[in-house]
UniProtKB/TrEMBL annotation:
UniProt cross-references to InterPro entries, sorted A to Z: ABC/ECF_trnsptr_transmembrane, ECF_CbiQ, ECF_transporter_component
Keywords: Cell membrane, Membrane, Transmembrane, Transmembrane helix
Compartments where located: Cell membrane
Protein name, as recorded: Cobalt ECF transporter T component CbiQ
Annotated organism of origin: Streptomyces venetus
Keyword field contains Protein transport: no
Signal peptide, first to last residue: none
Gene: cbiQ_1
Membrane topology: Multi-pass membrane protein
């Protein structure tokens, strides 16, 4: 899959969670999210226990609470949507602090906030303890279609290439005294965007030709064979199994 590739969400460490094979962590997070989504929204205590489970994982991974909370800001648009639901939903209404709110809307907002926050938190913990290259290897190990894995791999790498090219173009503009201050400067920015697209397309063609000349035939070679022992699977699946027990209690109580 190429050389190592660090990302801003990753937090370097040597915890037991960092040491788990990537495909075990991917399977554990996916199963945990499925269990959380399957939990009845009325079992509010269950979501508190899920948060405790994620807290235990964060503690084992040595991920600080501040790091996790800052990354959770990505769900702000969903929070805004959830806040509007009690006001726009139909059905039975109740008065809260002088406001007429929909009962179904309140439950829906709680459902979105609780399940969305837990899902995002689990994903952030996965990203914080697993490098991008390892995630791609994990997806490959889980038998995701090879074409999708390759697309994801190229997307990640070319995202950084394009970002770096944008940075160089910005520095070139600023070194010539350009500073975007209004609508009259949009033409220059549009030309820069067009040039960036052409450069990216040409670079993609050159990289493809280089890969073909080195024997690429539609499949990337597997450099690292990632395996997991039974103990590692047991350690990784402790989270979704514990969550499943909470979910079953939520349905039965």
């Amino acid at each position: 899959m190429g050389a190592g590739h660090a990302h801003k969400l990753y937090r370097h460490g040597h915890s037991p969670v960092h040491g788990l094979p990537p495909h075990t962590k991917l399977a554990a997070v996916f199963a945990f999210v499925v269990v959380v989504v399957s939990t009845p929204r009325e079992a509010m205590w269950a979501f508190g226990l899920y948060a405790v489970l994620l807290g235990v994982v964060a503690y084992a991974a040595r991920v600080p609470a501040g790091f996790l909370l800052r990354r959770l800001l990505i769900e702000v648009p969903f929070v805004a949507f959830a806040v509007l639901m009690p006001f726009v939903a139909e059905g039975e209404r109740i008065d809260v602090l002088g406001l007429s709110l929909s009962v179904n809307g309140l439950w829906g907002a709680w459902n979105v906030l609780a399940k969305g926050t837990l899902g995002v938190a689990a994903s952030v913990l996965l990203a914080a303890t697993t490098e991008l290259r390892e995630l791609l290897l994990g997806l490959q190990r889980l038998k995701l279609p090879p074409l999708l894995v390759q697309i994801a791999s190229f997307m990640i790498r070319y995202g950084d290439v394009i970002t770096d090219e944008m940075r160089r173009m910005r520095i070139a503009r600023e070194s010539r005294g350009f500073e975007a201050r209004g609508v009259r400067h949009w033409g220059v920015l549009a030309k820069s965007a067009g040039a960036l697209f052409i450069r990216s397309y040409e670079r993609g063609e050159r990289v493809h030709l280089a890969m073909v000349s080195r024997g690429y035939a539609g499949a990337m070679p597997v450099i690292d064979e990632v395996t997991a022992s039974r103990a590692q699977w047991s350690y990784a699946l402790a989270l979704p199994v514990s969550a499943l027990a909470v979910c079953l209690l939520g349905w039965s109580l």
